[in-house]
Amino acid sequence: MNFLYVGALQLPTLGMSASKLEFYIKNAKNKDVKLMLFGEYILNHFFWELKNIPKEMIKEQTNEHLELLQKFSKEYGIIFIAPLIRVRNKGLYKSIAKISPHKTEYYNQQILIHYGHWNEEEFFENKIKKLREPMIFKLGEFKIAVMAGFEMHFDKFWESIDKEEVDLVLLPTASTFESNSRWRELIKSRAFLHSCYILRANRLGECTYEGVEWKFYGDSLLVNPSGEIEMNLEDKESMLIEPISRYETVTHRRLWGFQKALKTRGEL
Predict the structure, then answer these.
(1) Does residue 76 carry a pLDDT above 80?
(2) Is residue 128 helix, strand or coil?
């Protein structure tokens, strides 16, 4: 498998009725997509809104969407990477589900946003402890990593990307305000320095908190190992489908030698 077709669904919160979702998935299947990424806070409300929703309702919401994606994964043979909120022992955990035809696995986000106006770390029960590598798995010849959007800022996670020679990093986000240019530059830099593709799925929609409007602007995109944007969506509901090439990641890694320089010095 020299090429792998991947997709990103750009949607607002809960913008995925069964019929609408199946429409997108059928189109993806027809284009041989094997892997589909969702943005953050698509299967559940944004975390400010979760404060006013009973935990049992959140749990029911999560389970309903999980069952739907599990059904479509079996039917269409597509792996879904979907951020969601899990209710465990009456606590809320910010997680990412990897839903494949025969198994569902979870990755709990390790570093959460912790600012005054956006404090997920305080709201969720995710433990603060020594970091481990992000979720990494193989699909054919490709090594793929799943990293929560905020975690992209921390070099420790990227050490695993270099060590494991990851070909594609999946990056679900819920980016807002005027951060568009900054996110683009960060993603392009990370892709180039770590010799990998990065597929980012950002959510759409708006919410208001304490009189401030939060607008999630989309701009889901695929960046290649040279740090160039191969394809991007604008600010409307849509689906991105593009092929990635393992030849490109292997060639870039050999040409620039960033990982080799670290390995010869015992750093990887």
Answers:
(1) yes
(2) coil
